[in-house]
Sequence to fold (288 residues):
Amino acid sequence: MMKKSLSGFIAFVLVSVAPVSVFAQLEDNLEVGISDPLTEEDIGEIQPAREDALQSVMRITGQVQGEYTSNAKLQGDHGNSDVLWLPTVEVGYNVPLTRQFSLDVMAKAETVLYSDNFGLSFYGVTAAATLEYRHKVEYPRIYVGAEPYWYQGIESGDKLASAVNFVIGSDQGVPFNRGRSMIFWGYRFGASVSDPNDDARYAHRGIVGFTHQFRPLLYGQVYYSCQYSDYYNASRQDIRHVLGATLSYQWTDGMFTSLSAGFADNESDQDMASYQSATVGFAVTWQF
Fold:
């Protein structure tokens, strides 16, 4: 039961850590950050491998989230605080192809509403198709995929950005402490084709973290990620460091509440793209 609960929590983390990163995208072209699969700080679905029988699985996830950010415009250091509301709905389907291969597809609709800077509010959709391979249960997962997205401003009605990201990567989670704890790590390379063109990039990202089950229904997680991005049409290079932590309580098999905190430091060779941002958030998440 411990491993099953821990795996469920890690799948929940796919959406719970989004608060750290929802602003950290396309800031070179826009006054507002946008959630972009190349730079999101979610950890994917890193979890202990299982030897279950082959079975297709559909999932539906909904989340209502409030968040304070110290730097809504991602300009300089903590210069424009705001409170945001982020409702999200995601639908996914995982199809085992063989004992080693599986195909995962998902679509997500999200909205970001700014309290003080409502003109920055936007909505959008993201999709992904990922082919996954794991040779044996104790081996890392290897994956390749494509991830299109599109975002539009609520007040202006203008398209803010669209792109297709092509990704390849590997990750692994190793449980210990009788299944109550897990360390995880991963690496991912992404290449995007985007509109506007200046946002196209090559990105290398590494992540490492630790998850622990304090009580049967209480979980905690800390992680660190580092990403190097080369905006090849804009002659720009960034290095982004993110520290994050989440404390979550599982009320039922499909309902979680969580408190999260994060700090991002983006160092760029273009001064206007360098910034720091701190976030604190609360979320309620349902999974079906």
